[in-house]
Amino acid sequence: MTRLTEFRQASRAWLQANCPESQRLPIVKREQIWGGRRRIFPSADAQVWFERMRDKGWTAPEWPTAYGGGGLSAAEAGILTQEMTALGCRPPLYEIGVWMFGPALLEYGTETQRQEHLPPIVRGEIRWCQGYSEPSAGSDLVSLKTRAEDKGDHFLVNGTKIWTTQADKADWIFCLVRTDPYAPKQAGISFLLIDMATAGVSTTPIPLISGESEFCQTFFDDVRVPKGNLVGELHGGWNVAKALLRHERKLMSIMGTMVEKEEGNIIDLARQYVGLDAEEKLRNPLLRHQLAQHLMRAQCDSLTTERIQQQYKHGQPDNNLPLIMKYLSTTEQQSKDELMLAIMGNRGLSWDDATYTENERKLVRNWAYNKAHTIAGGTSEIQLNIIAKRALGLPS
Ligand SMILES: Cc1cc2nc3c(=O)[nH]c(=O)nc-3n(C[C@H](O)[C@H](O)[C@H](O)COP(=O)(O)OP(=O)(O)OC[C@H]3O[C@@H](n4cnc5c(N)ncnc54)[C@H](O)[C@@H]3O)c2cc1C
């Protein structure tokens, strides 16, 4: 028996013995476990599941055991994901520290920084947020203006970040700051870690049309940040930023496997709302055609996601593929949402009408929310520019 086959058998047996039944049901948003000082568990089972996975280091399976991770190879981590998917296990921890910041720190951080920041992420004790965008620097991120002045033993930070997801719930923020205002744009940027509890840091939630508020504007007013919180070279933060964005785009390209699924499948929805003809076919031929197109694209999407995971498993990732998939999968999700609402007809017009079923309201809310996915982590237009330049080698 090969080492990987043994690992598959052992991890399957462990998951079967340790994942509570309730944690094998499809994930719903309100039951996701986010880390942090103010962490709350939605149920006793969720806590048990989280703690068992944490103790094995499987909240960050590929991180070295020296930092609390699982120490798995890419191939083993791929097998673990497959086994968890086969059993329906919920992700034990949702945390951008695990998905994005930790991998960048492993690459660019000092040993002291890794020891300080990685273990609390694995243990779900510290929650991170991302301070990149500013009111006048989104796609054109290199225009950012938040200043960090060198004051000898510390930096003094002043400025503001926007669209900071869950900043009001996060404990730390990783930030892009301008340390040299005279250097050409990206040459003067550094990557700084800031404890949100530091004097001068404040957040203001931004209300959304749905009534929820998951973004904040984050303000820095004379915030003193220790020099030891600089990751990478002074003025060399753009390299760290790009490495982190690669992890963010990889995450977004496989996001569909981690988020709450809409209730029911689209074919059942069509049967329910449009009905069948005498030959048991959907009544509307145009809709049949649209559905067939969607199902073919969805199949391509899932096969390509599987291909990306296999490439990581074998340590031979094609870095262009997540770039392309981020664009395709987020666009496809939106066309699926449009199709679902078209199927529902006048039952797909409101997310708060009390005469609608809960599922109908949820599908309409998803339609609105999923618009964000072609903006977050780099807009589709910017993705296409990058694909043209980097993947296809076209001239700028
Ligand atoms: C759900 C969500 C979560 C987010 N979370 C965070 C977070 O935690 N931290 C953070 O820092 N940011 C976050 N963001 C912000 C996100 O990174 C920015 O919204 C994104 O980079 C776009 O910037 P912008 O909103 O300023 O739009 P702009 O850059 O002003 O773009 C406006 C429009 O112009 C187009 N455009 C701009 N430049 C070009 C070009 N060169 N070529 C062609 N078209 C162009 C864009 O594609 C877009 O359609 C989040 C956004 C969303 C939607």
From TrEMBL:
Provide the Acyl-CoA dehydrogenase/oxidase C-terminal domain boundaries.
236-391
Q: Which InterPro entries match?
A: Acyl-CoA_Oxase/DH_mid-dom, Acyl-CoA_Oxase/DH_mid-dom_sf, AcylCo_DH-like_C, AcylCo_DH/oxidase_C, AcylCoA_DH/ox_N, AcylCoA_DH/ox_N_sf, AcylCoA_DH/oxidase_NM_dom_sf, Mycobact_Acyl-CoA_DH
**Which residue range or ranges hold the Acyl-CoA dehydrogenase/oxidase N-terminal domain?**
34-125
Keyword annotations from UniProtKB, A to Z: FAD, Flavoprotein, Oxidoreductase
Tell me the ranges covered by the Acyl-CoA oxidase/dehydrogenase middle domain, including all copies: 129-223
A molecular function GO annotation? flavin adenine dinucleotide binding
Source domain of life is Bacteria
GO CC terms: plasma membrane
Kindly list the cofactors needed.
Answer: FAD
Pfam families, alphabetized: Acyl-CoA_dh_1, Acyl-CoA_dh_M, Acyl-CoA_dh_N
Keyword Transferase on this protein? no
Is NADP included in the keywords of this UniProt record?
no
Family stated for the protein in its record:
Belongs to the acyl-CoA dehydrogenase family.
Its recorded name reads Acyl-CoA dehydrogenase family protein
Q: Which organism is it from?
A: SAR86 cluster bacterium
